[in-house]
Write a structure and sequence with these properties.
Layout (H helix, E strand, L loop, with lengths): L2 H7 L1 H14 L12 H12 L7 H5 L3 E3 L6 E12 L5 E11 L3 E3 L3 H10 L2 E2 L1 H16 L3 E10 H4 L10 E8 H4 L1 H17 L1
Parallel strand pairs: 2-5
Antiparallel strand pairs: 1-4, 2-3, 3-6, 6-7
Length: 198
């Protein structure tokens, strides 16, 4: 049985839990505005957590190519959406990825898909950043990988400190990006160029 069919099988149980949750909040799940809400929320969370049911190998789909190229590969401004594992509230922003190839590259369209696989799970931004970097390092064994993620967290914006303009920035630097200041600085300068021009 596939992971997707397993979660579909559990849908009635999840809907019952959501209905019970509404009751515990003091709501009436039978009122007009909430009719169908348990089903909508179940489908929504199934979609928002689909990364648990995706296989990195299938996503990359053998899109690893041998090549003699020794300059930095950068894919920046990748939109991502995730759910904070502490409050189940969204966080979202941009992901910037670079690697220095060592005889192999990843098909460019696969990099944003890899970001989606890990972001569509319950996450903390720090762990998400490392997962992406470590997976690229493992799959193509480049000379180094750099990942920077910038995000707004609704758990900071809507509750708690309620700071609407606070942005969280995390990074993971592996290989040459960790050991060589010049390589790291080149990457950070390239992803920051648009901000400096605006």
């Amino acid at each position: 049985m596939s992971r997707e069919s397993t979660i579909v099988e559990k849908a009635p149980e999840i809907r019952d839990l959501i209905e019970r949750f509404l009751v515990l909040l003091g709501e009436d799940p039978t009122r007009a505005g909430l009719k169908g809400t348990p089903e909508r929320v179940e489908k929504s969370f199934r979609y928002l957590t689909r990364g648990y049911r995706e296989d990195v190998e299938k996503v990359l789909n053998d899109a690893l190519f041998p090549i003699e190229y020794n300059e930095m590969v950068i894919v920046k401004n990748i939109d991502f959406y995730s759910l904070c594992e502490h409050h189940l509230l969204p966080f979202f922003g941009k992901c910037h990825i670079a690697y220095l190839p060592n005889k192999k590259v990843i098909g460019l369209s696969k990099i944003p898909r890899l970001v989606d696989v890990f972001s569509r799970r319950l996450q903390v931004q720090e762990h998400l950043t490392c997962q992406i970097a470590e997976t690229i390092q493992q799959k193509i064994e480049p000379f180094g990988v750099a990942v920077v993620m910038e995000a707004n967290h609704l758990c900071m914006m809507m509750r708690g400190v309620e700071k609407q303009n606070a942005m969280s920035v995390t990074s993971s630097m592996l290989g040459i990006f960790k050991t060589e200041y010049k390589t790291r600085a080149e990457f950070l300068n390239l992803i920051d160029r648009e901000r400096k021009q605006s």
